[in-house]
UniProtKB/TrEMBL annotation:
Keywords: ATP-binding, Kinase, Membrane, Nucleotide-binding, Phosphoprotein, Transferase, Transmembrane, Transmembrane helix, Two-component regulatory system. Its EC number is 2.7.13.3. Residues 170-234 form the Signal transduction histidine kinase subgroup 3 dimerisation and phosphoacceptor domain. Residues 281-368 form the Histidine kinase/HSP90-like ATPase domain. It is an enzyme of class 2 (transferase). It comes from Streptomyces radicis. SUPFAM superfamilies: ATPase domain of HSP90 chaperone/DNA topoisomerase II/histidine kinase. The chain crosses the membrane at residues 38-56, 63-91, 97-114, 126-143. Coiled coil: none annotated. CDD domains: HATPase_UhpB-NarQ-NarX-like. GO terms for molecular function: ATP binding; phosphorelay sensor kinase activity; protein dimerization activity. This is histidine kinase.
């Protein structure tokens, strides 16, 4: 309904322009011509019909323009409607059609100039002004058409960028959920499995495992709540601070509490000075490496080595021997951890490699650390 009202308003404005142009220019064009009252009345009636025909310009722009051009050879009051019709052709029809119509309109111009018309003759100036107006109407129509196409293209690109942004945001959130929850839930699985297969464990060990299960479950719920808050927030969500390089010791301590043998070797002079993006990505790499080791080689020691500095980049290496046999109660996984890590590392400007042999598993990541950071 809004577009119909706008189109009707535009058509009314085009009609008023056609009427106003024909009436206001009539005195200058018809001056000096010996026209009878009857012929003048016919000319005006023709012009009135032509002006009314602009309401049909959207349906038959080319036909209307050609008919008005023919009628304009005998009637001045058709000129305003002719300009509107030519503008419509240039605006709504393909450039090839516009060029063909423009060629028909401007074809008489070379023949007119070859005749060397008298510049003092009013008909000469009227003809030149007419051709100039025709060229202006077609040119303005082409400009409007190009502008509309540009706006439509920009709108389409903006919509596609918004869709791509939403897709990227969903992937980032999914990756974050995997990295965070997989670590917490694997701790739960390890301790729950220990209680299941060792029901006669000393009370102190049972109490310690139950405490780890409770703390891990609570932390998993907190992490999940934080991610849901981000999904619900319209602006920047306020939640827990993102992990940095200095949090690796806490991460290793959590894994040791779960019964893993983790050796953390940090060869970084000032971990707190690491770029936030590199530190956060390094944390997620170590987190995923420990989770994988806990799933697939729960009884093997894990060595985590972090080294580097400004200008050299940050190198993270997680190494653990391959298990002798697959664990009976292996923690299931989605199989997307390393894929997500590779994407995360690539987005941070780094690279990720992993190798699996019969002897060991090695996960290595390199992240940029600019010298000026």
């Amino acid at each position: 309904m809004a577009r119909t009202a706008r189109a009707l308003t535009t058509d009314v404005c085009a009609f008023l322009f056609a009427v106003g142009f024909s009436v206001l220019s009539a005195d200058a064009v018809l001056r000096g011509r010996d026209l009878s009252d009857g012929w003048l009345l016919v000319d005006q009636a023709t012009g009135a019909v032509a002006c009314l025909s602009v309401f049909l310009r959207r349906r038959w722009p080319v036909i209307l323009a050609l008919v008005l051009l023919v009628a304009g050879t005998r009637s001045h009051f058709v000129t305003g409607a002719t300009l509107v019709a030519l503008f419509t052709v240039a605006t709504h029809r393909p450039p090839r059609t516009t060029a063909w119509v423009a060629a028909v309109v401007l074809a008489p111009l070379p023949f007119f100039l070859v005749q060397r018309p008298d510049p003092a003759d009013p008909r000469t100036s009227s003809a030149l002004v007419f051709f100039a107006l025709v060229a202006g109407a077609i040119g303005w129509g082409l400009f409007v058409r190009s502008r509309r196409q540009l706006i439509a293209s920009l709108r389409d690109r903006a919509e596609r960028a918004a869709v791509e942004g939403r897709r990227q945001a969903r992937e980032d959130i999914a990756r974050e959920m995997h990295d965070v929850l997989a670590h917490r839930l694997s701790l739960l699985s390890v301790h729950a499995g220990a209680l299941e297969f060792n029901p006669g464990a000393p009370p102190a060990e049972v109490q310690r495992a139950a405490g780890v299960i409770r703390d891990s479950a609570h932390q998993a719920l907190e992490d999940l709540r934080e991610i849901i808050d981000v999904l619900r927030a319209d602006g920047d969500a306020v939640g827990q601070p993102q992990p940095v390089l200095t949090d690796l010791e806490r991460l290793a301590r959590e894994s040791r509490t779960a019964g893993m043998r983790v050796a953390l070797r940090q060869n970084v002079a000032d971990p707190a000075a690491a770029p936030p993006l590199a530190g956060r990505t390094a944390y997620r790499v170590v987190q995923e490496g420990l989770t994988n080791a806990r799933k697939h080689a729960p009884d093997e020691p894990v060595t985590v080595t972090v080294s580097g500095g400004p200008g050299d980049g940050l190198t993270v290496e997680i190494h653990n021997p391959a298990p002798g046999a697959a664990p009976e109660q292996a923690v299931p996984g989605a199989g997307m951890g390393l894929i997500g890590l590779r994407e995360r590392t690539g987005l941070a400007g780094g690279r990720l490699e992993h190798t699996l042999t019969r002897e060991d598993f090695r996960l290595t990541a390199w992240l940029p650390w600019p010298a000026s950071a």
